[in-house]
Amino acid sequence: MNPYLIFFLSWLVPGLGHLLQKRTRKAVVFSISILALLAMGVLMQGKFYNTSVMHPLLLLGFLGDLGNGLFYFILKFSGLAAGNIQAVTYHYGTAYLASAGLLNYLVALNAFDVAKGRKP
After folding, report:
1. Which of 10, 96, 113, 119 has its CA 20 to 30 A from that of 17?
2. What does the pLDDT read at residue 53?
3. Closest among 97, 111, 90 to 35, alpha carbons compared
4. Pseudo-torsion of CA 91, 60, 80, 75, nearest 10°?
5. How far, in Å, are 25, 50, 55, 76, 107 from residue 30 at the CA level?
6. Within 13 A of 87's CA, how many CA atoms are on the CB side?
7. How far apart are CA 94 and CA 109, in angstroms?
8. Separation CA 41–CA 97 (nearest Å)
9. Closest CA to 40 of 64, 12, 75
């Protein structure tokens, strides 16, 4: 299968790239880990970074959030990641949401490397 397609599908749905390459255990571990980070971020009332203010650090946070692939769009448009700044856990939740996206980028890159034959 095309490594670039594997990367895109793995970015879109965490763990899908590994699943398509018949690496079921890795796919399950990666999926559960990333989805758990997302769920905890939402439960902690974190929010996705927005791009209304074009500050470099906010842009990096937005790119981290965008790493969540399909779940970014689902959570963004459903309003589940709108955040509540009055919540004690707000900043932790926001960090969990961005961390999930960054981790998903790494998982997608790993799936790409496996598809290219660079990793066993």
Report:
1. 96
2. 78
3. 97
4. -150
5. 9, 26, 31, 22, 7
6. 16
7. 23
8. 5
9. 75
Instruction: Please report, for the chain, the start and end positions of each structural domain, with discontinuous segments joined by +.
Output: 3-116
Distance CA 73, CA 2 (A): 25
Q: Which two tokens stand for residue 51?
A: 């791009």
The answer to pTM > 0.85 is: yes
Q: Say which amino acid occupies 89.
A: T
Tell me 53's DSSP state. S
Residue 15 zone, left/alpha/beta (φ > 0; ψ -120 to 50; rest): left
Report the candidate in 35, 25, 56, 21 with the shortest Cα–Cα distance to residue 101. 35
- CA–CA gap between residue 81 and residue 52 (Å, rounded): 16
Q: What is the mean pLDDT of the chain?
A: 93
pLDDT value for 1: 84
For 13-54, how does the pLDDT look when each residue is reduced to its tens digit (9 = 90+)?
999 999 999 999 999 999 999 999 999 999 999 999 887 877
